[in-house]
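Hi! If you just cloned this repository, the fastest way to understand the data is to look at a raw example. We've pasted two of them here, unedited. The first protein comes first, obviously.
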Amino acid sequence: MKKIIFSLIVVVIAIASQSFYIQAGSSKSIQDGQSVYATYCMSCHMENGEGVEGAFPSLVKTGNLKDKNKLVQIILSGMRGPIVVKGVKYNAEMASISLSDQEVVDVINFIRNSWGNKAPLMKLAEVPLAKKAVLKGYQAY
């Protein structure tokens, strides 16, 4: 009996540690976005979204995540040129990432609703419109 209880506790801790930064009761899109983030974004922006100051911008509690169209463009086209995030200047390149429209929605929903960020969920139907949007002040590849 003790082994069963111990095993259950270990499983619960393992699951909790893998999802500690997803909001309780979050949508499937946010949960799926965590996997996309871990695969494509975490190596630069870090597991906790804090980035590396001066090299890779933080995604934690930043106003830079409000424009869904811009986020779609950055993810799919990459970006280069100077930006300022939370008062810190960055001037590195971000390579484009080849994702399906669903993966784009999921990772945006995850980023915009993790680490203290709160934003309405993006819908799959918004991605084609965002791909066509003209973004002022944005330099894609």
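Ok, and the second one:
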Amino acid sequence: MKLFELENVQLLKKSLDVYTKQHEAIAKNIANANNPDYKPMNTDFSSVLKTRMAESLRTADPRHIGQPKSVESRGSASGNSEVDVTKEMGALAENQIRFEFASKTLARVYRALSMSITGKDY
């Protein structure tokens, strides 16, 4: 088993990439809020999340918690081309919280690995 290729570590790294892309898309939507010709970028990654969860969440026992039945979507179903700055700012704050959680968790994993290799707590 390779220490830096653990499934959880890889998932955390990928989540940081997704949160970064989502942040860029939301920021672009906010920056172009006053542009009438701008079509907002869809920042709803729930379909990607559903696919990833279906791949990684397997139940071996009927008592295990199964896959969620639905993932809440914040995308516009009407195809409205206007940017709602309030919703975008809320999505930005939520995305920031998720990014910070993933980065702190990844840092904790690396700190534990370092401590187990060197025997020192930094």
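That's it. A detail worth noticing about the second one: Confidence is low (pLDDT under 50) at residues 68-79.
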